Amino acid sequence: MKSIKEQHLERLAAYTRTLYEKPDLRHLFLELTLRCNSKCFHCGSSCTASAAEDELTLEEYRRLLDQVKEDFDLSRIMLCVTGGEPLLRPDFFEIMGYAHRLGYRWGMTSNGTLITKETAHKLAACGMSTISVSIDGLPETHDRLRGMPGGYDRAMEGIRNLIDERAFRAVQVTTVINHRNIGELDALFGIMEGLDIDSWRVINLEPIGRALERPELMCTKEDYLRLFEFIRSKRREGWPVQYGCSHYLGLEYEREVRDWYWLCNAGVHTASVTSTGEIRACLDIERRPELVQGNIRTDRFSDVWKTKFAPFRHDLSEENADCALCEHRTFCRGGAHHSWDYERRRPLVCMKGILF
After folding, report:
1. Which segments within the chain are labelled E, that is strand?
2. Which of 92, 121, 156, 255 has its Cα between 20 and 30 A from that of 294?
3. Has residue 292 got a pLDDT over 90?
4. At a CB cut-off of 8 Å and minimum separation 6, what does 207 contact?
5. d(C-alpha 45, C-alpha 208), whole Å
6. Which residue has the higher pLDDT, 221 or 42?
């Protein structure tokens, strides 16, 4: 007799097949800038201190927001603002204030270092609903990984300023675990336990962006097992700790370390617009030319969403012989697009042999 999890996963697999035919946009990511004031070794976007010369203008963002409002039901869409560090964009509050007046719901990821009390108040005034701030270890570790002396203290001050504003639906902390900082999990939990945050999102280092230059920091099998046991145990105790959306984890850990089952949202629930206007799926996916679906400077976003995104609207398992023969294919579908090797047509991360 099939378990409840297997029944749920089979229904999710059937639902996913319908999404390939009829995608449902729920998250639209706006990469406002690639400029950043930190130098994170694991940055998936390889951000720098300088902005791209051809970043979208305020008027171009307004036109995009107008078009999306005309073409979609805004009640079903969350704007997810990211970078770089979004707050380094000089017209940040003009863009997001305009989105708020149009009726968008929106949230943001940030390193938190620029969030003064005044900034937190301005974020509330222009309608920000949720935010996730990065804390990647204890003070010395965090500052070293992010290349920013004093960054931990500034980020924690930003988190406290957000909490004190008492205007946001959710204030979250995100921590990226690697082979060297996994030993700080318990100490970090003690810190998070003392903050009035809504959730702690704990994810593993992924082989993307600048992290590809540091293979020695990738998690080992033992690290993964320790990470997922940690998250599961805290959730069973009632703490709002959760894993990210990265991978299929097998029957033992699916639904145990996050609120629902794994689904790669790229191109079916999620699309992104880069700082230069490119229309893509998930921003963590390797930035290969053939994966660009259009550009808002020349294309209407809704037309691209309806007619493009073919690379993301099928099971990746169809592209790899080992995946095609795997007994977990129905639930895994070849894995996540952001950790897919598009050159060799194989997953860069597979939990088979690690977790199950």
Report:
1. 27-31, 78-82, 105-110, 128-134, 170-177, 199-204, 241-242, 270-273, 278-280, 294-295, 340-341, 346-347
2. 92
3. yes
4. 215, 218, 339, 348, 349
5. 8
6. 221
